[in-house]
Amino acid sequence: xxxxxxxxxxxxxxxxxxxxxxxxxxxxxxxxxxxxxxxxxxxxxxxxxxxxxxxxxxxxxxxxxxxxxxxxxxxxxxxxxxxxxxxxxxxxxxxxxxxxxxxxxxxxxxxxxxxxxxxxxxxxxxxxxxxxx
Length: 133
Description:
By secondary structure, this protein is mainly alpha-helical. Strands 1-2 form a two-stranded antiparallel sheet. Strands 3-4 form a two-stranded parallel sheet. A hairpin with a 7-residue loop joins strand 1 and strand 2. The chain is elongated, with a radius of gyration of 17 Å. The model has no long low-confidence stretch (mean pLDDT 90).
């Protein structure tokens, strides 16, 4: 898989266990394509070469892209979140769908009535720190 990604961009990271992060900024210009198009190319290559479908999230930050990837239904697909729409897209998600929020933190937030990412984002950081530790 990492070789497949390396064909699209030279900037690839492989955080464990089954994820990969790819910076496509330079690759978009090189390939004269959109990020969603390159993700479709990746999916086609992995299915045809290895029989494996992948879930691809695209976003302006690692958190948005990772959260988007988790929202893709299995077996695979692409979800691209535009930079100018990321805040609105995230705001509607359940707090447990935000990358980095574990089930214990999500349960605590929900006890306080914070069930959406938008509500969480509206809180002062000190309040979130007091609630979650």
